[in-house]
Amino acid sequence: MVVTKNVVVVGDGAAGIMTANKIRCLNSEKDARVTLIGNNVKNFCRSDGPQIALRMKKFNESVKPVNFLLNNGVDFVRDEVMQVRPKNRLLYLKSGKKFDYDYLVLAPGLADAPEKLQGYEGEAKHILDMQHALELGKTLESLTEGTVIVAINGASAPNLMGFFELALVYREQLANIKSKIKMKFVSPDKGAFPLQELSGFFAEKFDSVGIELVADFKVTSINQKNKEIVSAENKTLNYDVLVLPPPLKTREFLGNDDLLGNDGSKNINKTRLTVKDYDDVYISGDAFDFLAEELSGSFVTQSRFISHRISLDINSSFDSEQYAGSVTLSAMTGLSKGITVSYSYDKRPKAPTESMADFRFKKHYSDFYFSSLIRGII
Questions:
Q1: Which of 5, 229, 308, 358 has fewest C-beta within 10 Å?
Q2: Which residues lie below 8 Å from residue 232, measured CB to CB, with a gap of 6+?
Protein backbone atom coordinates (compact mmCIF):
# COMPACT_ATOMS: atom_id res chain seq x y z
CA MET A 1 0.00 0.00 0.00
CA VAL A 2 1.37 3.40 -1.05
CA VAL A 3 1.31 6.05 1.68
CA THR A 4 1.08 9.56 0.26
CA LYS A 5 3.53 11.92 1.96
CA ASN A 6 2.59 15.50 2.81
CA VAL A 7 5.21 18.00 1.66
CA VAL A 8 4.55 21.57 2.83
CA VAL A 9 6.57 24.50 1.51
CA VAL A 10 6.29 27.80 3.39
CA GLY A 11 6.95 30.92 1.32
CA ASP A 12 5.86 31.88 -2.19
CA GLY A 13 9.00 33.69 -3.24
CA ALA A 14 11.49 32.27 -5.73
CA ALA A 15 12.89 29.61 -3.37
CA GLY A 16 9.48 28.36 -2.25
CA ILE A 17 7.87 28.25 -5.69
CA MET A 18 10.86 26.54 -7.30
CA THR A 19 11.08 23.93 -4.54
CA ALA A 20 7.36 23.12 -4.65
CA ASN A 21 7.44 22.86 -8.45
CA LYS A 22 10.58 20.72 -8.45
CA ILE A 23 9.18 18.28 -5.88
CA ARG A 24 6.00 18.05 -7.92
CA CYS A 25 8.04 17.24 -11.05
CA LEU A 26 10.02 14.53 -9.28
CA ASN A 27 7.12 12.70 -7.60
CA SER A 28 3.74 11.35 -8.63
CA GLU A 29 0.63 12.66 -6.89
CA LYS A 30 0.09 9.28 -5.25
CA ASP A 31 3.55 9.51 -3.67
CA ALA A 32 3.50 13.15 -2.59
CA ARG A 33 0.94 15.85 -1.88
CA VAL A 34 2.66 19.22 -2.33
CA THR A 35 1.26 22.33 -0.63
CA LEU A 36 2.68 25.85 -0.95
CA ILE A 37 1.69 28.38 1.73
CA GLY A 38 2.18 32.10 1.13
CA ASN A 39 0.33 35.38 0.99
CA ASN A 40 1.62 36.99 -2.21
CA VAL A 41 -0.55 37.45 -5.28
CA LYS A 42 2.38 38.01 -7.64
CA ASN A 43 6.04 37.03 -7.87
CA PHE A 44 8.64 39.63 -8.78
CA CYS A 45 11.85 38.63 -10.56
CA ARG A 46 14.14 40.49 -8.19
CA SER A 47 17.07 40.25 -10.58
CA ASP A 48 15.29 42.84 -12.76
CA GLY A 49 15.35 45.50 -10.04
CA PRO A 50 18.25 47.53 -11.52
CA GLN A 51 16.75 47.44 -15.02
CA ILE A 52 13.39 48.68 -13.76
CA ALA A 53 15.01 51.48 -11.79
CA LEU A 54 17.08 52.51 -14.82
CA ARG A 55 14.12 52.32 -17.21
CA MET A 56 15.65 49.50 -19.25
CA LYS A 57 12.65 47.23 -18.77
CA LYS A 58 8.93 47.65 -18.23
CA PHE A 59 7.87 46.41 -14.82
CA ASN A 60 5.11 44.16 -16.20
CA GLU A 61 7.79 41.98 -17.81
CA SER A 62 9.21 41.24 -14.35
CA VAL A 63 6.13 40.10 -12.46
CA LYS A 64 3.77 37.13 -12.84
CA PRO A 65 0.83 35.79 -10.78
CA VAL A 66 1.89 33.11 -8.32
CA ASN A 67 -0.92 30.82 -9.48
CA PHE A 68 0.38 31.05 -13.05
CA LEU A 69 3.86 29.93 -11.96
CA LEU A 70 2.79 26.79 -10.11
CA ASN A 71 2.93 23.39 -11.79
CA ASN A 72 -0.21 21.30 -11.98
CA GLY A 73 -0.69 19.38 -8.75
CA VAL A 74 0.77 22.01 -6.40
CA ASP A 75 -1.89 23.20 -3.94
CA PHE A 76 -1.59 26.91 -3.14
CA VAL A 77 -2.89 28.12 0.22
CA ARG A 78 -2.91 31.90 0.54
CA ASP A 79 -2.28 32.34 4.24
CA GLU A 80 0.44 33.16 6.76
CA VAL A 81 2.27 30.79 9.10
CA MET A 82 2.15 31.90 12.71
CA GLN A 83 3.70 28.95 14.51
CA VAL A 84 5.63 25.76 13.74
CA ARG A 85 5.78 22.81 16.11
CA PRO A 86 8.37 20.50 14.54
CA LYS A 87 8.12 17.90 17.29
CA ASN A 88 4.46 17.42 16.41
CA ARG A 89 4.93 18.13 12.68
CA LEU A 90 2.27 20.84 12.79
CA LEU A 91 1.85 24.31 11.29
CA TYR A 92 -0.60 26.89 12.63
CA LEU A 93 -1.85 29.56 10.22
CA LYS A 94 -3.20 33.06 10.69
CA SER A 95 -6.64 31.95 9.46
CA GLY A 96 -6.86 29.42 12.29
CA LYS A 97 -6.17 26.43 10.06
CA LYS A 98 -3.47 23.93 10.85
CA PHE A 99 -1.47 21.61 8.64
CA ASP A 100 0.43 18.46 9.37
CA TYR A 101 3.41 17.41 7.26
CA ASP A 102 5.93 14.67 6.62
CA TYR A 103 8.45 17.11 5.11
CA LEU A 104 8.60 20.85 5.70
CA VAL A 105 10.55 23.40 3.65
CA LEU A 106 10.87 26.84 5.21
CA ALA A 107 11.48 29.49 2.55
CA PRO A 108 9.63 32.51 3.97
CA GLY A 109 12.16 35.13 2.92
CA LEU A 110 13.07 37.94 5.29
CA ALA A 111 11.20 40.80 6.92
CA ASP A 112 12.22 44.43 6.53
CA ALA A 113 13.62 45.88 9.75
CA PRO A 114 14.26 49.61 9.13
CA GLU A 115 14.30 50.17 12.88
CA LYS A 116 17.69 48.41 12.98
CA LEU A 117 19.32 51.33 11.14
CA GLN A 118 18.57 54.81 12.46
CA GLY A 119 17.31 57.14 9.73
CA TYR A 120 16.79 54.45 7.10
CA GLU A 121 13.01 54.55 6.77
CA GLY A 122 11.74 57.11 4.31
CA GLU A 123 15.23 58.09 3.19
CA ALA A 124 17.18 55.24 1.59
CA LYS A 125 16.19 53.64 -1.72
CA HIS A 126 16.63 50.09 -2.95
CA ILE A 127 15.85 47.66 -5.79
CA LEU A 128 14.67 44.53 -3.99
CA ASP A 129 10.97 44.77 -4.84
CA MET A 130 9.03 46.25 -7.71
CA GLN A 131 7.61 49.22 -5.84
CA HIS A 132 10.95 50.38 -4.49
CA ALA A 133 12.66 49.87 -7.87
CA LEU A 134 10.01 52.06 -9.52
CA GLU A 135 10.36 54.71 -6.81
CA LEU A 136 14.14 54.75 -7.25
CA GLY A 137 13.64 55.19 -10.99
CA LYS A 138 11.49 58.29 -10.44
CA THR A 139 14.06 59.72 -8.05
CA LEU A 140 16.96 59.21 -10.47
CA GLU A 141 14.97 60.64 -13.38
CA SER A 142 14.38 63.88 -11.51
CA LEU A 143 18.00 64.27 -10.35
CA THR A 144 20.06 66.73 -12.39
CA GLU A 145 23.10 67.20 -10.18
CA GLY A 146 24.55 66.04 -6.87
CA THR A 147 25.95 62.80 -5.47
CA VAL A 148 24.43 59.35 -5.69
CA ILE A 149 25.76 56.85 -3.16
CA VAL A 150 25.21 53.15 -3.76
CA ALA A 151 26.12 51.21 -0.62
CA ILE A 152 26.04 47.66 0.68
CA ASN A 153 26.19 46.58 4.30
CA GLY A 154 27.02 42.88 4.16
CA ALA A 155 27.62 39.80 2.00
CA SER A 156 24.21 38.19 2.48
CA ALA A 157 22.10 41.04 1.12
CA PRO A 158 19.46 39.67 -1.29
CA ASN A 159 20.47 40.37 -4.91
CA LEU A 160 23.81 41.68 -3.71
CA MET A 161 25.19 41.73 -7.26
CA GLY A 162 22.28 43.93 -8.33
CA PHE A 163 23.67 46.91 -6.40
CA PHE A 164 26.97 46.64 -8.30
CA GLU A 165 25.03 46.33 -11.52
CA LEU A 166 22.94 49.39 -10.72
CA ALA A 167 26.03 51.51 -10.02
CA LEU A 168 27.92 50.50 -13.16
CA VAL A 169 25.03 50.70 -15.63
CA TYR A 170 23.75 53.99 -14.21
CA ARG A 171 27.25 55.47 -14.43
CA GLU A 172 27.47 54.58 -18.11
CA GLN A 173 24.05 56.09 -18.73
CA LEU A 174 25.24 59.30 -17.07
CA ALA A 175 28.44 59.33 -19.15
CA ASN A 176 26.40 59.13 -22.35
CA ILE A 177 24.53 62.34 -21.48
CA LYS A 178 27.56 64.08 -19.91
CA SER A 179 25.81 64.48 -16.58
CA LYS A 180 27.22 66.43 -13.63
CA ILE A 181 26.01 63.76 -11.19
CA LYS A 182 28.80 62.16 -9.15
CA MET A 183 28.74 58.59 -7.89
CA LYS A 184 30.26 56.79 -4.94
CA PHE A 185 30.13 53.10 -4.04
CA VAL A 186 30.41 52.38 -0.32
CA SER A 187 31.48 48.97 1.00
CA PRO A 188 31.87 47.74 4.59
CA ASP A 189 34.73 45.47 3.51
CA LYS A 190 38.41 46.19 2.93
CA GLY A 191 37.76 46.08 -0.80
CA ALA A 192 34.91 46.67 -3.21
CA PHE A 193 33.26 43.25 -2.84
CA PRO A 194 32.72 40.96 0.17
CA LEU A 195 34.72 38.21 -1.57
CA GLN A 196 38.37 39.18 -1.88
CA GLU A 197 38.72 37.40 -5.22
CA LEU A 198 36.22 39.79 -6.82
CA SER A 199 37.26 42.99 -5.06
CA GLY A 200 40.05 43.80 -7.48
CA PHE A 201 37.81 43.46 -10.52
CA PHE A 202 35.14 45.81 -9.17
CA ALA A 203 37.67 48.30 -7.78
CA GLU A 204 39.31 48.57 -11.20
CA LYS A 205 35.94 48.77 -12.92
CA PHE A 206 34.72 51.55 -10.63
CA ASP A 207 37.95 53.48 -11.18
CA SER A 208 37.74 53.14 -14.96
CA VAL A 209 34.23 54.57 -15.18
CA GLY A 210 34.60 57.32 -12.59
CA ILE A 211 32.87 55.84 -9.54
CA GLU A 212 34.63 56.71 -6.28
CA LEU A 213 35.08 53.63 -4.09
CA VAL A 214 34.84 54.14 -0.34
CA ALA A 215 35.85 50.91 1.38
CA ASP A 216 35.86 49.89 5.04
CA PHE A 217 32.77 52.00 5.71
CA LYS A 218 29.87 50.22 7.40
CA VAL A 219 26.77 52.39 7.58
CA THR A 220 25.57 52.53 11.20
CA SER A 221 23.13 55.44 10.91
CA ILE A 222 21.69 57.94 8.44
CA ASN A 223 21.41 61.62 9.26
CA GLN A 224 18.42 62.65 7.19
CA LYS A 225 18.68 66.34 8.09
CA ASN A 226 22.27 66.64 6.86
CA LYS A 227 21.79 63.94 4.18
CA GLU A 228 24.81 61.97 5.31
CA ILE A 229 25.63 58.39 6.17
CA VAL A 230 27.62 57.71 9.34
CA SER A 231 30.08 54.86 9.92
CA ALA A 232 31.01 52.94 13.06
CA GLU A 233 34.09 55.20 13.36
CA ASN A 234 31.81 58.26 13.14
CA LYS A 235 33.00 59.13 9.64
CA THR A 236 30.43 60.76 7.38
CA LEU A 237 29.64 60.92 3.67
CA ASN A 238 27.12 63.27 2.10
CA TYR A 239 24.64 62.22 -0.57
CA ASP A 240 21.72 63.54 -2.56
CA VAL A 241 20.36 60.06 -3.31
CA LEU A 242 21.18 57.04 -1.17
CA VAL A 243 20.73 53.48 -2.43
CA LEU A 244 21.19 50.90 0.34
CA PRO A 245 19.67 47.46 1.02
CA PRO A 246 17.18 47.60 3.89
CA PRO A 247 18.07 46.08 7.24
CA LEU A 248 16.47 42.65 7.42
CA LYS A 249 15.51 40.05 10.00
CA THR A 250 14.21 36.50 10.02
CA ARG A 251 10.48 35.92 10.22
CA GLU A 252 9.10 35.97 13.73
CA PHE A 253 7.76 32.41 13.74
CA LEU A 254 11.25 31.06 13.00
CA GLY A 255 12.47 32.40 16.36
CA ASN A 256 10.72 29.56 18.17
CA ASP A 257 13.18 27.73 20.43
CA ASP A 258 12.30 24.51 18.61
CA LEU A 259 13.56 26.09 15.37
CA LEU A 260 16.14 28.88 15.12
CA GLY A 261 15.94 30.25 18.65
CA ASN A 262 17.91 33.38 19.53
CA ASP A 263 20.99 32.45 17.50
CA GLY A 264 19.72 31.04 14.25
CA SER A 265 23.14 30.67 12.65
CA LYS A 266 23.99 27.94 15.17
CA ASN A 267 20.80 26.02 14.48
CA ILE A 268 21.08 25.50 10.75
CA ASN A 269 23.07 22.72 9.12
CA LYS A 270 24.92 24.33 6.23
CA THR A 271 25.60 21.07 4.40
CA ARG A 272 22.15 19.47 4.84
CA LEU A 273 20.02 22.66 4.85
CA THR A 274 18.10 21.35 7.83
CA VAL A 275 17.08 23.04 11.07
CA LYS A 276 18.53 21.69 14.30
CA ASP A 277 18.31 17.89 14.34
CA TYR A 278 15.10 17.69 12.33
CA ASP A 279 15.83 15.71 9.18
CA ASP A 280 12.34 16.54 7.92
CA VAL A 281 12.60 20.34 8.27
CA TYR A 282 14.60 22.25 5.63
CA ILE A 283 15.38 25.94 5.28
CA SER A 284 16.07 27.71 1.98
CA GLY A 285 16.38 31.02 0.14
CA ASP A 286 17.03 34.39 1.75
CA ALA A 287 16.23 33.02 5.21
CA PHE A 288 19.14 30.57 4.90
CA ASP A 289 21.56 32.97 3.16
CA PHE A 290 20.99 35.56 5.89
CA LEU A 291 22.08 33.07 8.56
CA ALA A 292 24.90 31.48 6.55
CA GLU A 293 26.35 35.00 6.08
CA GLU A 294 28.48 34.07 3.07
CA LEU A 295 25.83 33.41 0.43
CA SER A 296 23.54 35.59 -1.67
CA GLY A 297 21.06 34.40 -4.26
CA SER A 298 21.73 30.69 -3.79
CA PHE A 299 18.05 29.66 -3.89
CA VAL A 300 18.50 27.76 -7.17
CA THR A 301 21.03 25.24 -5.89
CA GLN A 302 19.25 25.00 -2.53
CA SER A 303 15.90 24.24 -4.17
CA ARG A 304 17.47 21.54 -6.32
CA PHE A 305 19.28 19.98 -3.37
CA ILE A 306 16.23 19.94 -1.07
CA SER A 307 13.89 18.66 -3.77
CA HIS A 308 16.15 15.73 -4.58
CA ARG A 309 16.74 14.90 -0.90
CA ILE A 310 13.03 14.78 -0.16
CA SER A 311 12.23 12.85 -3.34
CA LEU A 312 14.85 10.22 -2.62
CA ASP A 313 13.56 9.81 0.92
CA ILE A 314 9.97 9.44 -0.32
CA ASN A 315 11.18 6.62 -2.55
CA SER A 316 13.16 5.03 0.32
CA SER A 317 16.53 5.77 -1.27
CA PHE A 318 19.63 6.90 0.60
CA ASP A 319 21.63 9.95 -0.41
CA SER A 320 24.83 11.02 1.33
CA GLU A 321 25.36 14.10 -0.85
CA GLN A 322 25.99 17.33 1.00
CA TYR A 323 25.09 20.87 0.01
CA ALA A 324 28.20 22.66 -1.27
CA GLY A 325 26.94 26.23 -1.02
CA SER A 326 27.14 26.70 -4.77
CA VAL A 327 26.21 30.09 -6.18
CA THR A 328 26.23 31.45 -9.73
CA LEU A 329 25.63 35.18 -10.11
CA SER A 330 25.40 37.34 -13.22
CA ALA A 331 25.45 41.12 -13.59
CA MET A 332 25.60 43.76 -16.27
CA THR A 333 28.75 45.83 -15.95
CA GLY A 334 27.64 48.48 -18.42
CA LEU A 335 25.31 48.91 -21.37
CA SER A 336 26.92 46.20 -23.50
CA LYS A 337 28.94 43.91 -21.21
CA GLY A 338 28.33 41.63 -18.26
CA ILE A 339 29.91 38.97 -16.06
CA THR A 340 29.03 35.64 -14.50
CA VAL A 341 30.78 34.34 -11.39
CA SER A 342 30.48 31.05 -9.50
CA TYR A 343 31.66 30.03 -6.08
CA SER A 344 30.81 27.75 -3.14
CA TYR A 345 31.81 27.10 0.44
CA ASP A 346 35.13 25.60 -0.63
CA LYS A 347 35.61 26.87 -4.18
CA ARG A 348 36.53 30.50 -4.48
CA PRO A 349 35.50 32.54 -7.54
CA LYS A 350 37.87 33.43 -10.34
CA ALA A 351 38.33 36.99 -11.52
CA PRO A 352 35.55 37.44 -14.09
CA THR A 353 35.89 38.32 -17.76
CA GLU A 354 33.35 40.68 -19.28
CA SER A 355 31.38 39.59 -22.33
CA MET A 356 28.39 40.66 -24.40
CA ALA A 357 26.92 37.15 -23.95
CA ASP A 358 26.74 37.65 -20.18
CA PHE A 359 25.15 41.06 -20.71
CA ARG A 360 22.44 39.55 -22.92
CA PHE A 361 21.81 36.69 -20.51
CA LYS A 362 21.29 39.08 -17.61
CA LYS A 363 19.18 41.48 -19.64
CA HIS A 364 16.77 38.69 -20.57
CA TYR A 365 17.14 36.65 -17.38
CA SER A 366 13.50 37.06 -16.34
CA ASP A 367 12.35 35.22 -19.49
CA PHE A 368 14.42 32.20 -18.41
CA TYR A 369 13.42 32.66 -14.77
CA PHE A 370 9.66 32.58 -15.42
CA SER A 371 9.57 30.02 -18.23
CA SER A 372 11.94 27.37 -16.91
CA LEU A 373 13.92 28.02 -13.75
CA ILE A 374 11.19 28.76 -11.24
CA ARG A 375 9.03 25.97 -12.65
CA GLY A 376 11.65 23.42 -11.61
CA ILE A 377 12.28 22.26 -15.15
CA ILE A 378 16.03 22.92 -14.99
A1: 308
A2: 218, 220
